[in-house]
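Hello,

Our lab assistant flagged a job as stuck in the queue for most of the afternoon. It eventually completed. Since we weren't sure the result was trustworthy after the delay, we are filing this so someone can double-check. Below is the sequence as submitted and the structure that was eventually returned. Let us know if re-running is recommended.
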Amino acid sequence: MSDALIEVAAAAMGTVVSIQLAQVEDATGATTAAREALDLLPLIEQCCSRFREDSELWALCQRSPGLVEGSPLLVELLALAVVLAERTDGAYDPTVGASLHARGFRTAWDSGRCLELPTGCLPGSESAARGGWRQLRVDRGARTIDMRAPLLLDLGGLAKGFAVDLLRHHLSAFPNVCINAGGDVRASGTGGMGIPWRIGIRDPLTPNRLVAQVALDEGAVCTTAVGGRSGTGGGRHVVVPHRHAAECHLASVSVLASTAVVADGLSTAAFVLGPEAAHPILCEEGASALFVLADGQLETVGVGAMAARWERC
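-- returned structure --
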């Protein structure tokens, strides 16, 4: 078994997705497997991207309202989105696409073209008034999606984590792997020299500086930050429902959880809720979060053993 670290990467989902495999027996075979895993990313984008007019998600929004049959991939992702919306009382909401569109988040990352709202979709304020995520029903068994209002769905707070987990499943034969999709990270086993993977958390207020790190031998870390994507008007990419007001007090939230899709969705919800309101949800999911406040102070909340794993720099 070699101590060499194998890494492959590809541009996808508006970022760079990299796979690292450590301590492999067959370097050529491991590289091939990693590249095959990356080949899944265009399929995921084709399924669930709000920034592609040829995606299944876009076609679904064009046909809304109504009941349609969806692909297994989209049904599973939307079902997870609805569950998370229910558990967070809408702090995570997959129906905020029109609000994001209105704030300038409507440019296709690959072509640079500005997208129009799908035919019939309501403007952001009107869609929110219709009840948001409560208008979306998903039946895993029947593989159906029921949109009860003409809404524009956005899975940006969940899709990358979902993709990372899917790649990890594809590479289940490899015990030592780290997958990074623009800061959404899932790791298993150890890296070089048998040392656990160490994931750094960037300081959202000071470029090229870390505020913390965490050692991972099994789990995921995902971050939602003020300095993420920006709209044409410079707006932030997290929509805060009117009943929540924590966003202005936070610079970033990083969540440590068992899977990337859970960490991704919870980081969005926790950013909206703030430390106190997010605490019971994080504990329920067996997760923890590192909050970077707007003044640079750090706060960790969540399950005790998980919260203790954050190492401040």
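-- support follow-up --
The delay was a queue issue, not a problem with the job. The result is valid. Residues 50-147 form a domain with the T-fold fold (CATH 1.10.3980.10). The chain has two domains: 50-147, 177-312.
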